[in-house]
Amino acid sequence: MINLAIVVLLSYIIGSIPTSIMLSRWLHGFDIRTKGSGNAGGTNVFRVLGWKSGVFVMAVDMGKGAIATALISRLFWDPSLPFYNRTPFDDFTVIQMICGGMAIVGHIWTVFAGFKGGKGIATGAGMLIGMAPTEFAISIGVFLLVFWAYKYVSLGSIAGAVAFPLSLFVRHNIFGDEIHSYKTLIVFSLSVAILLVYSHRQNIKRLIEGTEKKITGFAGKKAEEPKTPS
What we know:
The protein is mainly α. The protein has one domain. It has helices at 2-16, 19-28, 42-49, 51-70, 91-108, 121-129, 133-150, 153-173, 182-199, 201-209. Helix 3 (42-49) runs antiparallel to helix 4, helix 4 packs across helix 6 and helix 5 (91-108) packs antiparallel against helix 6 (121-129).
């Protein structure tokens, strides 16, 4: 149990690294949460600091999820879980899910910045790359399509999060594809999608009200927006 607590804590800490806050403070002298939408995620970095900084922040945040899932999980050296594994997954895969989930929690509620972080989309993507690459590719495609059509990163992120479990369901139940451990994976991906949609609740409110900010330029120009309530 102690070893499990260690990997859970380490995953939370790696997820808690506030990439966007560190970048904005070190390179620009301000906290990204005081600009734009007030959020510490990659979307707000896109708006305020431009696409290059936005891509960098999202790549690092994605790496946090991948590190927790692929590396920190391997520090769990116990031969078996300290609880009965009712899933069809092997014990190590369960540990990967726990570590990846804790990295997402750390990103959303970072201990290093007053428990106010980003939305967790990029970190969640990093966790899912190795677990279900086909569904991840579909989710990325949905994100890019929705973003290209509407210019809302938040809307694309929500659509991509929902697309992951939906594509699992369609592949398995409509096209008849055999997906290993389907039942456990769809429950897990639904839980992740619900968490990520919940973290975007203020964006959803602004989308409904028509006050969500679009991203329309990618020439490296800063696109600082007035701060809106979050």
